[in-house]
Amino acid sequence: MTRNKEDYIKEIYKLGGAEEQINNKQISEILNVAPASVTEMLGKLQKEELIVYEPYKGSKLTEKGMDAAVTLLRGHRLWEVFLIERLGYTWSEAHDDAEKLEHVAPARLIDRLEEYLGFPDFCPHGNAIPRADGRIQKPNLKSILEMKEGEASVIRRVTEENDLMDYLQELNIHIGSKVTVEKFGALEGPVTIRLDGVQKQLSCKAAGMVFVEM
Ligand SMILES: [Zn+2]
Q: What is the pLDDT of residues 95-105, one digit of tens each?
């Protein structure tokens, strides 16, 4: 499969395409491609029996498509564990290089890597790592923006966007950090939080992309 096709399959899976039909608009937005190109690619993926595509309704992954998506995501997230834990990468560096490695590593290598790393359940950004049979943990999380003033929780996941990850690492935010919301700034201003006991300001946009236990 080409890298481009693999990216489609992976994003459809992440949007929930294992369970429901994902519409073209969602796919074109997340991959940042024109709707016409999306339609063309979905036709190709259907021909290869990776998805079932219904015009005006959307795309759902077939079993074959799901297997491919799971292998890619396992690769991505396991490489991230390896790069960060063993090679000292930053969050965004690991995400970038995992994006390349996921397309070239065969399933056998990914399985060995998983064993070598001790079967981790989550990547360093808090995304669940599917097992080889597709089982995946689905923790119930909400964003910091959905918390109330005075509420405390634990950070469990951050959105994998490089600018955001660099910003969060500079603020010393970790998966597992204890966070209390002290005050939401007026008019979507910065959120004042207490992080592992230290007061910090978090931009409103970032607060919507950091997830905590419910
Ligand atoms: Zn990750």
A: 999 999 999 99
